[in-house]
Write a structure and sequence with these properties.
The chain is α/β, with parallel strands linked by helices. It has one domain: NAD(P)-binding Rossmann-like Domain (Rossmann fold, 3-Layer(aba) Sandwich), CATH 3.40.50.720. The longest helix has 18 residues.
């Protein structure tokens, strides 16, 4: 039997964090939920346990403790909060996989706040130089987790990173949440992925997709 991984979800009460947590709770994982709002955190944990009595979920109020216990860390927080969290977990995240899901959107959602020659994931790698940063879950909306099959097709979720084993581990994680993982390339590909999200948001607002939309690569 495959060893159960312990996954810390930092920012678990946000739209993306809670969606990821709920879907992963159906898999063979131990979840450590961490967020600033403790009331919402305990409510989320209760919802997860009510939906799956056999799930393994704990609530921790310290990002460092959660990251120390975890095999893998998901940063489900806005881009502007990552620096503060990275400083807290830097030592305990050494050699661990840290998943970057954020998109550094500007206030009008029509562009990114990062320079063209970098990405949120690459900036996180600079903050956590001894961790294995992998970009994932950034090209899908929170609503998609409840319906990963859109228009009769399973939505793709792109993964990018520099470490082959980390990419494989995160691809399995993506698959466990219900999406089709596609390894897109090294971490610099995150620049493209984050811009893809800008486009998807613009299309969603223009054509009223009701935030249930995603990307699909069609091929023979």
């Amino acid at each position: 039997m495959k060893t159960k991984q312990t996954i810390a979800i930092i920012g678990a009460t946000g739209n993306m964090g809670s969606a990821i947590a709920k879907n992963l709770s159906q898999g063979n994982y131990r979840l450590l939920l961490c967020a600033r709002n403790h009331d919402k955190l305990y409510t989320l944990a209760q919802e997860i346990m009510e939906g799956n009595l056999t799930t393994d979920v704990d609530v921790l109020d310290c990002t460092m403790n959660a990251s120390w216990e975890a095999d893998l860390i998901i940063m489900a927080v806005p881009y502007h909060e990552e620096k503060e969290i990275a400083e807290k977990i830097r030592q305990v995240a050494t050699q661990k996989i840290v998943v970057s899901i954020s998109n550094p959107l500007n206030e009008t959602y029509n562009g990114l706040t990062t320079a063209p020659d970098t990405s949120a994931a690459e900036e996180l790698q600079k903050l956590l130089p001894n961790s294995k940063i992998v970009k994932a879950f950034s090209t899908i909306f929170a609503a998609d987790f409840a319906s990963p099959v859109i228009g009769g097709k399973q939505a793709d979720a792109f993964v990018a990173g520099n470490d082959p084993e980390a990419l494989q581990t995160v691809s399995e994680l993506v698959q466990a949440t219900g999406f089709n993982p596609i390894i897109a390339g090294n971490l610099s590909v995150s620049r493209t992925l984050e811009n893809m999200t800008v486009l998807l948001i613009q299309l969603t607002m223009k054509y009223n997709y009701n935030w249930l939309a995603g990307w699909k690569v069609l091929h023979h």
